[in-house]
Amino acid sequence: MTAPRCPRALGAAVAGLVLAGAVPAVSAASPAAMRLKASVAADARLGEPTALRLQLHLDRRRGAVARRLTLRYAAGIDIIGSGLGLATCRPSPATFAAVAIDPLPVRAGCPANAVIAIGRARGQIRLHPPTITQTATFTLLAGPLDPTGLKVVGLVTGINPFGANLVYAGMVTADRGPFGGRIDVALPRIPDVFPDDTSDVALLDVDATIGSKAIVYQRRDRRGRVRRWHPDGPILPARCPRGGLPFRAEVLLSDGATITATARATCPPRARPRTPGDGAEPRAASR
Predict the structure, then answer these.
(1) Is the dihedral of CA 92, 97, 103, 107 positive or negative?
(2) Which has more confidence, 103 or 153?
(3) What 3-state DSSP class applies to 179?
(4) What is the span of the domain harbouring residue 105?
């Protein structure tokens, strides 16, 4: 979709603010500040890889900018050891926390086989007045692996009405208690182009799937032919805790407040007994 004509700086700044993840400034005690939903694919089985969908909704009634997003996921879920992230995304340092109109430099150094999750986001631009709803796509890619965990890269691209690209840095690391791991993404301040300091943007919804079946990897075989397949998603634990698989989202706001939300994904059935030859080949992708 072609974005409407607007001053480049204004359009980039608006999209940048949306993708930076401005969120409502509400008390951490407010139960309606943020809602989280977590679910696995309908055909999921314990102990096997699956697609993991996460939906985050934030209250739009107040405003404060997010500085960090943390997602904790259930013990036994394995993202780093899954079939995701066979390649490494290494974007230029200059692309982080900077508004970019041209997507090509942003995507440089980030091959398709590095994609971990894909999804969408929706935000509200508040210019006092008017108020504009902005939509964007979200892609999480695997970065380098280091002793502390897996570095990840968050790529957000505005769709409508403004188009711009932003890149954020994050980490996937081990956690404790009922949570086996966590994804942390830093949301540093975007360059301020708006002359009016009262203008802001609120993130309304994020809907992303780790290991989505829409993710397609490819490689060349010995004959030079391109082979495409859907990579295996996060591996579920062999056993499910009572009440379901626990998840927790935490958003640190620029005013110092932290808002949280929890969710439990319904436990899928146990894995079926394997027969010889099961799991020998990756799932073929539709052409």
Answers:
(1) positive
(2) 153
(3) strand
(4) 32-267
Beta strands in the chain (DSSP E): 22-23, 34-40, 52-58, 64-74, 115-126, 131-146, 149-160, 165-174, 179-186, 200-210, 217-220, 226-230, 245-253, 258-265, 283-284
The residue that leads in pLDDT, 97 or 160, is: 160
Residue labelled with tokens 């692309």: 95
In a domain, 281, yes or no: no
Q: How confident is the model at residue 13 (pLDDT cuts 50, 70, 90)?
A: very low
List the Cα angle 12/63/54 in 5-degree steps: 80
Distance between alpha carbon 173 and the CA centroid of its chain, in Å?
A: 15
| Average pLDDT of the segment spanning 124-128 | 69
Total domain count, the chain: 1
Check whether 234 has a pLDDT greater than 90: yes
Per this entry, what is the length of the chain?
287
Integer Cα distance of 201 and 124 in angstroms: 5
220 found inside a domain: yes
HSE-CB at 93 with a 13 A cutoff on CA atoms is 0
Residues 219, 153: Cα–Cα separation, whole Å:
22
SS3 94: helix
**Cα dihedral sign for 229, 138, 60, 182?**
positive
∠ CA 40-18-257, nearest 5°, is 80
